[in-house]
């Protein structure tokens, strides 16, 4: 199994929420099929993340975030520990990323040792559209480059070194 998963999350028909999906598609065009890195896209969260993340040593997640603290297009590099958790779940049957990782480990499911989150500050997460807003669209090539650079920094990923 490949050692690194690049996972684009979001909804490609809800404007900026699709930024993770669009980034994954661009990365796949470059990486294609590879023995060290696999690229996936998903529109899920919660318990389903356990299945997606299991078996990889490292995961790079690309997703939208709306903090209102930075301008649209700003890219945060985060870890699961940076993600705020609450004592109550928003939905009784859903869990957040840190909880999914912890639950997977407690269930003896092989979970990644390293999780890097590239979160793009977004402007519009409510309009039905297959297009990103201009600032988020301008950030797309940069988040793709950041993910590829993270993959390249891993010595097992000789595919990128030409």
- Here the CATH topology equals Rossmann fold
pLDDT averaged over residues: 86
**Global outline:** globular
CA distance, first residue to last residue: 23 Å
What key attributes describe this structure?
5-stranded mixed beta sheet, Rossmann fold, 30% helix, 162 residues, alpha/beta, 4 helices
Describe the protein in words.
The chain is of the alpha/beta class and 162 residues long. It has one domain: Rossmann fold (3-Layer(aba) Sandwich), CATH 3.40.50.1450. Helix content is 30%, strand content 20%. It has 4 helices and 5 strands. It has helices at residues 19-31, 48-53, 97-106, 134-152, and strands at 4-9, 37-42, 58-65, 75-78, 114-121. Strands 2-1-3-5-4 form a 5-stranded mixed beta sheet, with helices on one face. The protein starts with a strand and ends in a 10-residue tail after the last helix.
